[in-house]
Amino acid sequence: MRLVTIQPVEVLKDLSVKHRYVCDTEKVESYEDADLFTDAYAWMNERLAERIGAAPVGVKYPIWAWYRYDGDFAHWNGGGTFVKIVLDIDPERVVLSDFDDWNCIMNGGPVVTDEDEDDVFEEENIRKTWERVFHDDGECVQACFWELRSDDVLSVEVFTSTKYEEESE
């Protein structure tokens, strides 16, 4: 399965030295708003374990990549130097989900199939709708997997992204 992941350039060192990269738990948990997505990530981790197996020892969060992406990376993550890594990964190691639906989950809301449905969910039923995130027919489809292995890598491109404000100046 062909995927693209955007990572900090430091990931290249792990791939070179350790021949694998796993998500940096401390970095994820140090984000200013980390507490907002803890529940969503825990839920996704459970789904990953069910669908592709438990995380390797010492791995708490998955790697995220794009299966299909309708944008560009010019303004990635508020600016900085990143690496675009094109991967070829066994589909058995990957779970695909719709990016827009994932944002509903990150906000603690239901994943709805039409606008009228949005108002009908009571709190205890919202999580039941989250399974709807697992489809690959959206415009932006993301991929999760537990580890990035050096032998998954097809190509690497280092690039500098800009902040949105910089472009309009």
Could you describe the 3D structure shown?
This protein is an alpha+beta fold and 169 residues long. The chain has one domain (2-168). The protein has 6 helices and 8 strands; from the N terminus they run βαβααβββααβββα. The strands form 3 sheets. Strands 1-4-8 form a 3-stranded antiparallel beta sheet, with no helix packed on it. The protein is globular. It starts with a strand and ends with a helix.
Mean pLDDT over the residues = 86
Order of helices and strands: EHEHHEEEHHEEEH
Q: What is the total number of structural domains?
A: 1
- Tell me the Rg in angstroms: 17 Å
For the record, give the distance between the C-alpha atoms at the N and C termini, rounded to a whole number: 40 Å
Strand order of the largest sheet: 1-4-8
Q: What ranges have pLDDT less than 50 throughout 5 or more consecutive residues?
A: none
What's the β-strand tally?
A: 8
Total of DSSP H or I helical runs spanning 4+ residues: 6
Strand content: 25-35%
Shape: globular
Q: Helix share of residues?
A: 25-40%
Oligomer: single chain
